[in-house]
Amino acid sequence: MLLELLEGTVSTSANRLALVSPERTWTYAELGNVIEERAKELVGTEVEPGRVHVIDAHPDSNAVIEILGCWRAGVPVAPLDPRLTPAEKSRAKAVLDRSETDARAILWTSGTGGRPRGVVLTLENICASADAVIDRLSLGTKDVWLLSLSPAHVGGMALMTRAFLLGCTLFAYGPFRADLASQLIDGEGLPEGASPVTHMSLVPTQLLHLLKHRGEMRVPTWFRCGLIGGAHAPPDLIKQGLAGGWPLALTYGMTEMTSQVATAVPSEVTRKPGSVGRALMGTEIKIDSEGQILVKGPTLAPGYIGSAEPLADGEGWYRTGDLGHFDDDGDLWVTGRRSDRIVSGGITIDANRIEDVLCEHEGVQDACVVGIPDPEWGEIVGAWVVPISHGLDLRLLEEYTRQSLGEAKRPRIWLAREDIPRNTNGKLERSRVREALELEARQAD
């Protein structure tokens, strides 16, 4: 259906429900007409040929129609997350205003590996990604997706495009709310003719809020998949979801690969929690001598906006900056980023592993671990923890780490506060955490 929407060939008899917002619904025929009207407006008055159309992209019907209208008109679109700071938006727009491209979309990376950059995605990238995910998750036309991520996030754009490629129904109700998502899963308050949500993509923090909201409520039998990705998912969170009967799929991906690279389906996650499974159709993965994950395939973007440098090396491989390994079954395990490694007294420490240990403590809801410069050891471990309730005793938490972690791996600097800094994609902002812990260390001296 996606290509029919973009080509303007949707039949007037296509009465399947396409898009649902709090205000109204659109069949595929109606959506096709709206997209055609918006495309004409864009070409007639708002966009110069070859120039990028920049929009603020909430996860709502306005953003969906705007993006599809641009694609229908052949206009490249750059959806920006409305939660970006004014400085971040200004930097992005400065690059986009002086750029021309024939790509379909430019998505801003999260910046976890450096300064954010605009990834150029072609329609071929987008459709290849959708086809591969449809194949891996055995998706069908009766699936109902919630647009739980902004289309400015590659997970949100990929969700939107695969739903429309199949001819599914997409709920676009605005920024994610656990209470609203819960109602849509249960089928409460649906507009006439709409079915309950059967699929959604969530970053780990969204899953955490959904599980807390629902408590002991049963998962409806028609809910088929919660696709978890975008950031490291603590093992305890996955165990909690599985124990509650949630069909969870774990995925590993990145903007440069148009979303998913490898995905473990719910039955595989139940059997082997933590693994992200095998490479998707058409994608290849290998691990280099330093443990870094390399990927290639038809979903690999041609490059970054404003840069002539290709992402891939001469053999087509893209170096992700992530670390991982394959198990004996050939399933992939992602262990962290090279930049997240801490070296203390010559010992290499995996920040993700320490975070997982901290989150296993009964008083800790979330944690972020970073390396703090130290004149004697090079780096020492610092930890920002989010207590489950007031009154977390850090002395008891330190005693817990003495029993669970080797001496070099134990945090020496602590912060216990709510709301660890995260970027708009839900990923930890380790630079801000490091600044806060360094300040804490200086004040302690």
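Above is the first protein from milestone M3; the second protein from the same milestone is given next.
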Amino acid sequence: MLKEERQQIILNEVRIHNKVLLTDLASFLDVSTDTVRRDIKELDTLKKLKKVHGGAISLGFDNHPLVGDKIYALEKKSLIAQKALRLIKEGQVILLSGGTTNLEIARRIPNKVRLTCFTPSLPIAFQLLEKPNIEVVFIGGRLSRDSQIAVGGSAINMLSDIKVDLCFMGTNSIHSIEGLTEFDWEIVQMKKAMIKSSRKVISPCISEKIGSLQRYKICGAEEVDILVTELEPWDMKLEVFKNKDIELL
């Protein structure tokens, strides 16, 4: 594989998943970690991603507030947000995890809708504060520098004390057999706690993440109540979820 092809694959993975690990990329590309490290260093110099310890993150993931030209697949995420808004009703209590798709959902909530919104994400909390009829409750804890999301025991304990109507679970990877997976162990623990604190779990997810896998499991696919993508529900790519008792939107 040519270096240019390899680096394009690295860029695609970073844009889709926001963060990638050296070891995972080396395995995926079947090259050494030193080769991937050199590629990431070059791409960082070209300002196409940001090199971090053990891997790389997308430029959009590292810039707050995010702007449209920094968000990967913004058109698809906007369509997902429009669909997701159909699920939100006046007076509900909802939970929004982090991620650029959830940020787009938060941005598009109409100002007139009255809601209580819990979130561990600083960017989403700031976005929601612009809505005059939304009561924003920040789930506090130690902040992850990369994602600006609260993690750790304090945040998980707070989640154990609530029961929300809807949880919009930012989705890194989803697989019909392996379920929802993540690369960050602390984020996994947060998302497990979010599932327990929610009556209904919604996965807003661009179709490029379908079938992908990360190293740590959050839950089985059957624990997701509604999968929201930019695709039509009858699209062949979603066929694998038809026997999982998941509503496709």
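Note on the second protein: The chain has a mean pLDDT of 88.
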